[in-house]
Design a protein that fits this description.
Two copies of one chain form a homodimer. Chain A has a five-stranded antiparallel sheet with strand order 1-2-3-5-4. Chain A is α+β, with helices and mostly antiparallel strands and 139 residues long. In chain A, 30% of the residues lie in helices and 22% in strands. Chain A has one domain (13-138): HIT family, subunit A (2-Layer Sandwich). Chain A has helices at 13-18, 58-79, 125-138; strands spanning 19-24, 28-33, 40-45, 83-88, 98-103. Chain A binds chain B through residues 51-54, 61-62, 65, 68-69, 72-73, 76, 82-92, 94, 103, 110-113, 115-116, and chain B through 51-54, 61-62, 65, 68-69, 72-73, 76, 82-92, 94, 103, 110-113, 115-116. Strand 4 of chain A pairs antiparallel with strand 4 of chain B, so a sheet runs across the interface.
Chain lengths: 139, 139
């Protein structure tokens, strides 16, 4: 029997509060940040206790690369953005998570980073639902 | 004969001005950001015309993952930092480059991101040389 590598994994409470589930990928849970300022997705590898990218196994790293590609390409196609910003910071939420953000010239933080930039601006529920539906359809 | 995938590659002028070469890895040129506020390395894949991670070939992505692991592990061991921050933004410099930054509680931008945070503070030349020597020795 294969070991259950996801055993013991629970999503960080802050990630849970700030974002909504989009779907399950092979390794990651894909979530949408509830911030209408930028189309912003988060990939959370379902592995307990991992904080750094380099602490994933080589196979999990390959999976994450594959899933991040898929998500970044879809988000760029969907939004027509100028640039994808990808980042794994984790200074506040230590559970490993990878941000994939659609950036466009003239967006609120352009050309600076989105992290830590002012307060989050939640979507109206129907807008968030529509964004999530569009991401799902584009994957 | 194998095609020369590096043909036509030249380092972006701003990356050249803001950082110093550490060494060549298999895919990337490894550079040290000349900013004494944080131990900060940059991997630049030697591929012309690439702006997004997902535009690299699958083999190049695997190489980049391998090299980024090596660099992040070494930097964490060398500095004893709290957290590695990795990011590929490219809003200002479009040539694909991956940041690997050692972050510690109480550093100048903690817990926010380093990108766009105040003016760069160059090292004294001997300090920069010493940082680069230490990175080389730890790889």
């Amino acid at each position: 029997m294969l070991p259950d590598l996801k055993a013991g994994f629970t999503l960080d409470a802050r990630l849970h509060a700030d974002s909504e589930q989009v779907m399950w990928l092979g390794l990651c849970e894909l979530r949408a940040m509830n911030d209408r300022r930028w189309p912003w997705l988060i990939l959370v590898p379902q592995r307990p206790g991992i904080e750094e990218l380099h602490d994933l196994t080589p196979l999990d790293q390959a999976m994450l690369t594959f899933e991040a590609n898929l998500v970044a390409q879809s988000l760029k196609r969907l939004t027509g953005c100028t640039k994808i910003n990808s980042g794994a910071l984790g200074n506040i939420v230590r559970q490993l998570h990878l941000h994939v953000v659609a950036r466009s010239e003239g967006d609120p933080a352009w050309p600076g980073p989105v992290w830590g930039f002012g307060p989050r601006e939640p979507y109206r529920p129907a807008e968030l639902r529509s964004f999530i539906d569009n991401v799902r359809a584009s994957l």
